[in-house]
Amino acid sequence: MKYQAIIFDLDGVICHTDQYHYQAWKQMADGLGIAIDESINDQLRGVSRMASLEIILKEGGVQLPEEEKQRLAAQKNELYRSLLMQMTPADLPVEVSETLQALRDAGIRLAIGSSSKNTVMILERLGLGDFFDAVSDGNQITHSKPDPEVFLLAADLLGVPAKDCLVVEDAEAGIRAAAAGGMDAAGIGAAVGDACTYRIGRFSELVQIAAGDKS
Ligand code: BG6
Ligand code: MG
Known about the structure:
Elements: E1 5-8, H1 17-31, H2 38-44, H3 49-60, H4 66-84, H5 94-105, E2 109-113, H6 119-125, E3 134-136, H7 149-158, E4 165-169, H8 172-180, E5 184-188, E6 198-200, H9 206-211
Parallel strand pairs: 1-2, 1-4, 2-3, 4-5, 5-6
Helix pairs in contact: 1-4
6-O-phosphono-beta-D-glucopyranose binds near residues 45, 116 and 118.
């Protein structure tokens, strides 16, 4: 195997919660009279809740006191969590669950590396509460992506050197975080930038990448 471990981002990689983040931010932004679209949403991928709020406020040229920012972020999170409550294991794409199983059967250690503080809830709703060998998330870190902290912690929890880990990401901030941590990265989707080690169109391509059969 080319990699001993794979560290997956969660939102937009394992499941489509990136769309729920967008819906919730859009509703909050509408309330402030700030128009956001998919290109702004792409800038929110991978970064922390408060950093996302700052990007939206900057887009609208709006300045608010810290207290009000905390209130808005909490309000967005409440709405986001109410959207998450609709999720069931049927929201885990079949291709993702089959690929995860194939990677595990090949002897690869599997971890989550997500900026989200809602990671555990999402994994439970998808029926993946006990699946991963390690979970590193927004509650355990001080610096969000593009800082490598969340991925380095995942590698540490797995006991695997960074150079033997592959990161899977849908966000440019996440691809940069992987590189900063000395890890290769596979990018999914249109918002990953130019620095990916691999670009993948289908999640199942990870099986060939992990085996060293794809460059
Ligand atoms: C990342 C998302 O996974 O988590 C970001 O890509 C989000 O869009 C961040 O802001 C923090 O998520 P949460 O659930 O803690 O608000
Ligand atoms: Mg993501």
